[in-house]
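Q: What would this chain look like folded?
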Amino acid sequence: IEGVTIGETLADPEDPRPLPVICVDEPTLSMTLGVNTSPVAGDDGSKLTARQVKTRLDAELVGNVSLRVLPTERPDTWEVQGRGELQLAILVETMRREGFE
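A: My prediction, written as structure tokens:
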């Protein structure tokens, strides 16, 4: 169903009692993630633009309720906040396998 996100309740119109909201713990670790600006950019991946990175991070937010993505002063970097090293490492490795640098 389009437009429904995690945390929302689908209910019968005749009995619309929603489920209680689940509280997600605050992030404990953050890192800055951005496009590859090194002289050898493009050697290891095919997805290189800030728009592609932002689209991928936004897609991750749909199913990963404990992740936060905040803008920084630079338009090509974002502060990614998560619950720990493993969660952020999995995100970075998954993006690398998808062709991001």
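The chain has two helices and three strands.
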